[in-house]
Amino acid sequence: MTRIPHETSGEPNPLQALTLDQLRRRTSMKWRTYPEDVLPVWVAEMDVPLAEPVARAVTDALHLGDTGYPAGTAYAEALAAFAEKRWNWDGLAVERTAIVPDVMLGVVEMLKLVTGYGDAVVVNPPVYPPFYHFVEHMDRRVVEAPLGADGRIDLGVLEETFRQAMAGGGQAAYLLCSPHNPTGTVHTAEELSAVAALAERHGVRVVADEIHAPLVIGGTDFVPYLSVPGAERGLSLMSASKAWNLAGLKAALAIAGPGAGADLARMPEEVGHGPSHIGVIAHTAALRDGGAWLDALLSGLDAGRRLLADLLAEHLPAIRYRPGDATYLAWLDCRALGLGDDPADAFLHHGRVALNSGLPFGTGGAGHVRFNLATSPQVVTEAVRRMATALE
Ligand SMILES: Cc1ncc(COP(=O)(O)O)c(C=O)c1O
């Protein structure tokens, strides 16, 4: 695939638009979970204003009272056009898509289509903690195939895990996180083709969570799972929610490969009643008209990850940080600090800075924290200063 360079949009960096006082007036999880004196750099919310095209679309809808039920395929069409422009992928067939309330509920519905009670769902830890909670809540078994020491999918481990997952009979699915949260790893076309071949060989169905797909920086290409050979029976979940900070405006898309259209067609109609019409309007506007804003964000995130690397090298050199090429999340190996399995606890209590503990991310999470970079350089700097104070 040819890489489409980020356009130079002339848009200001949205990560520098809001002051800390403005952010503290927010009532969302990031800002209301901890007391006021704690600096939050944890949950995946971004410290940005709404992109102007999204704000306009939502405001117009509100003025019109256009607050009924969602209809039509505008969201899927906007995503198909975005995929073609950004990833050079023209294989997203609007007729093989369905709106779902959000990505995690979409994951649950896709897993219900291809597995039954007690079946195995393979994940690559360390990985986004709800992969465990949601899968266990639906009475499937989570089976771990840990990432390699390089933060990439270990195909040998994956194959062995597929074999074990299928050993007792029944069905199995592989919940792929692409790009990977928390490491920011962008899987290559070769890796994804190898995954597809392994899944086909062992009869494992692939459900790809591609929510971070628009958030790829650093000259790397995002490769949609459904674009690789052999992935025809795959299912994917995409959404504008991470890249444009729309988690509060619920809507996501389930996408089926050509060999999975019949599965998606079995998804109960009620699921499509979950996304909000305003959410669909917002996500559609983001994908259709939010490209320049996204480019400005990506430039800001690229600067942010370099700033974090520099600050850690200066103030906390024992922390190992390998900047990933995607997401706005930084996965920090704090094992050399001597803070035990849960360094986030020490940073919170002694530094008054809230990071995600690595423990819920599964095998490989102990001794790690996740740092949310989607904020201003001032907040990144202050967060590292507070982390360093925790060690004094
Ligand atoms: C990999 C991944 N999947 C899903 C989600 C949550 O998405 P949603 O709010 O659409 O369920 C997140 C949020 O950070 C995520 O990182």
Automatic annotation (TrEMBL):
CDD domains: AAT_like (cd00609)
Keywords: Lyase, Pyridoxal phosphate
Keyword Transcription regulation tagged: no
Pfam assignment, any one: Aminotran_1_2
The enzyme's E.C. designation: 4.4.1.13
GO molecular function: cysteine-S-conjugate beta-lyase activity; pyridoxal phosphate binding
rRNA-binding found in the keyword field: no
Cofactor(s) needed by this chain: pyridoxal 5'-phosphate
Domain of life: Bacteria
Domain (Aminotransferase class I/classII large): residue spans on this chain: 74-386
Family label: Belongs to the class-II pyridoxal-phosphate-dependent aminotransferase family. MalY/PatB cystathionine beta-lyase subfamily.
Name this polypeptide is given: cysteine-S-conjugate beta-lyase
Source organism of this protein record: Streptomyces chartreusis NRRL 3882
Originating gene: patB
